[in-house]
Design goal:
heterodimer, A: mainly alpha, B: about 375 residues, alpha+beta, four-stranded antiparallel β-sheet, 11 helices, 10 strands, about 50% helix, about 15% strand
C-alpha cells in the first residue's frame, strides 16, 4: 500500500471502524456511504490529495475502493503534470 | 482555532449591519404582513454585491469568504428572515453550479447570478417528498436532444421570482439534478401564501408538464443528484441557515433587553426580576455559543476541511434550537405585547419555527450527527 492509499485508508477507516479496509474492498457494498460521507470524501481527496473533482469524475467506480480512489488521484495528477509540462 | 474576527471582517459586518438597519429592519414587519419581499430591496441587494456572495471573481462575483458570508447572513437574518432566505436559496444554486457545473454552465449562469439578473431557487421538496429527497416523484425522461420533466415541486422559496431552478428528478429511478430556466416550455408557477413563518419569501409550487430542457442542462451526472449536487447545495444552505438563525436569536435578545429595561411591573423593571434575568442569561449564552459554532464551521469550510460537513450540521442544529427557544422566551418576556403585531418578536417566533424544518429537519440532524461523532475538534 503506497502513501496515497494509506492516507485514503486512514480517512475511510473512520467510517468503517469494525472493518480492516483492504485496497480493493467495495465501500459501497460495505454500506455506510451516504451523501454526507460522499461529500466528505470529495473534500478529503481535494484537500489532502491535491486534486479537483469535476463533474466528469462523478462515477461510482472512481470512488468504489481505496485502490479506485488512488487511481483517480494518479490519473488526475498525471493530467495536471502533463498540462504543466 | 481562530475565533476572533479580523479587522476586515469587522468592517464588513458593520457595512452589512448598516445596510440592514436602513433598508431591511424598518420594513420587515410590513413585508411579513404583505407576504412579499419587494423587488426594490432585492435590486438593492444586487446593486450592493450582496447576492451570489461566494461566486468567484472570474465569473463576476465578489468571492466573499465563508466567514464574511456568514456575517452577512446573520445581519440580514437579524432584520428579516424572509430576505435572508433569498440569500440562502440563491447562493445554494450558485454554489451547486460553481461546484458541479460544466464550464458552459458556469459561464452562462454565474455572472448573471452574481449580478442578480436572475435569481436562483431550489426545487427539491414535493407534495410527497420532503426529508426523503431520494424519493422525489418528478421524472426526467430522455428524448433525443432534450430532457422532458414531469412532476410537481412544492415550497420552493422565492419560486415566484426565480429565473433559474435547481431541480431534482428521477431518471430511470436515479436521482438526478437539472438546471431549468423559468421560461422553459411546460413550466408553470403557482404562488403559495398563508405560511406560518418566513411569510414574505414568495414560495411557489412549480409544475413541470412535459417541460423540455436541453440535454446539457444536466448538472453533475445521472444518479448523483442527491449524493453530490443537492448535498453540496444543502450543505451551503445549512451553513447560511445556521447564521440566519443566529441573526434571529440576536434580534430576540436585543428586543428582550430593550423591553426588559423599559417595562415596569410590580414597581421595578422587568430586568430586575430574577426569572426574567435568567431567561436573558440563557439567551446571551446560547446566542454566543451558536455563533461560535458557526464561526468554527465557517473556518473549516473556508479551508476545505472534510469535517466541515459535520460541523455545519452541528451548527445548524444548535442555532435552530437556539432561535426557537430564544424567540419563545422573547415573546414570554413581552407578554401580551409579544403576541401582537406591535412588536417584532411575534414574527421572530413564527420565523424561528422554520429553522427547525428547512435544510434538514432537527430530527434528521439528531439521527445523523451521532454517526459522525468520531471527528475530533
Amino acid at each position: 500500500m503506497d502513501q496515497t492509499q494509506a492516507k485514503i485508508k486512514e480517512f475511510l477507516s473512520r467510517f468503517f471502524k469494525s472493518h480492516d479496509l483492504q485496497p480493493d474492498d467495495d465501500i459501497f457494498a460495505l454500506g455506510f456511504v451516504n451523501s454526507l460521507l460522499a461529500m466528505q470524501l470529495v473534500a478529503f481527496v481535494e484537500k489532502e490529495l491535491g486534486i479537483r473533482v469535476e463533474d466528469e469524475d462523478l462515477d461510482l467506480d472512481n470512488f468504489r475502493s481505496i485502490g479506485a480512489i488512488a487511481r483517480l488521484v494518479a490519473k488526475k495528477t498525471a493530467g495536471t503534470e502533463a498540462v504543466s509540462a | 482555532m481562530k475565533l476572533e474576527l479580523t479587522p476586515e471582517e469587522r468592517a464588513a459586518r458593520s457595512e452589512f449591519r448598516a445596510f440592514a438597519a436602513e433598508h431591511v429592519v424598518p420594513h420587515a414587519d410590513r413585508w411579513d404582513r404583505e407576504q412579499a419581499v419587494p423587488r426594490e430591496v432585492i435590486e438593492r441587494l444586487a446593486a450592493e454585491g450582496l447576492l451570489g456572495s461566494n461566486i468567484p471573481s472570474d465569473y463576476g462575483g465578489v468571492g466573499r469568504d465563508m466567514i464574511t458570508y456568514g456575517l452577512l447572513t446573520e445581519e440580514i437574518g437579524r432584520g428579516c428572515s424572509s430576505l435572508r432566505s433569498l440569500l440562502t436559496v440563491h447562493d445554494m444554486v450558485a454554489h451547486a453550479v460553481e461546484r458541479w457545473g460544466s464550464r458552459e454552465h458556469k459561464e452562462r449562469y454565474l455572472p448573471r447570478l452574481a449580478k442578480g439578473e436572475i435569481l436562483g431557487a431550489l426545487a427539491l421538496s414535493e407534495p410527497n417528498a420532503g426529508s426523503d429527497a431520494k424519493s422525489v416523484e418528478t421524472v426526467a425522461a430522455s428524448d433525443g436532444d432534450a430532457w422532458v420533466l414531469t412532476g410537481t415541486k412544492k415550497w420552493t422559496t422565492f419560486g415566484q421570482l426565480a429565473g433559474l431552478f435547481l431541480v431534482l428528478a428521477q431518471h430511470e429511478s436515479q436521482p438526478t439534478a437539472f438546471l431549468v430556466e423559468r421560461e422553459a416550455p411546460g413550466l408553470s408557477i403557482r404562488p403559495l401564501s398563508g405560511l406560518h413563518g418566513t411569510r414574505a419569501s414568495l414560495l411557489a409550487e412549480i409544475t413541470f408538464d412535459g417541460c423540455r430542457i436541453p440535454k446539457d442542462q444536466l448538472l453533475g451526472r445521472v444518479g448523483f443528484g442527491v449524493s453530490h449536487v443537492v448535498a453540496a447545495a444543502l450543505e451551503h444552505g445549512r451553513y447560511s441557515v445556521a447564521w440566519g438563525a443566529v441573526g434571529v436569536a440576536q434580534a430576540c435578545l436585543d428586543a428582550s433587553l430593550t423591553y426588559a429595561r423599559s417595562r415596569k411591573q410590580f414597581g421595578s423593571l422587568l430586568f430586575d426580576h430574577q426569572l426574567i434575568r435568567a431567561m436573558l442569561a440563557d439567551m446571551i449564552t446560547n446566542v454566543r455559543a451558536a455563533r461560535l459554532l458557526c464561526l468554527r464551521a465557517g473556518h473549516l469550510r473556508q479551508t476545505g476541511d472534510p469535517g466541515a460537513f459535520m460541523e455545519v450540521m452541528v451548527a445548524k442544529y444548535f442555532a435552530a434550537n437556539t432561535a426557537a427557544k430564544t424567540a419563545n422566551d422573547a415573546v414570554q418576556i413581552h407578554g401580551a405585547n409579544g403576541c401582537s403585531a406591535d412588536y417584532p418578536v411575534a414574527r421572530y417566533l413564527r420565523d424561528s419555527k422554520v429553522f427547525e424544518i428547512i435544510e434538514g429537519s432537527t430530527q434528521i440532524q439528531q439521527i445523523t450527527i451521532p454517526l459522525f461523532d468520531f471527528q475530533e475538534l
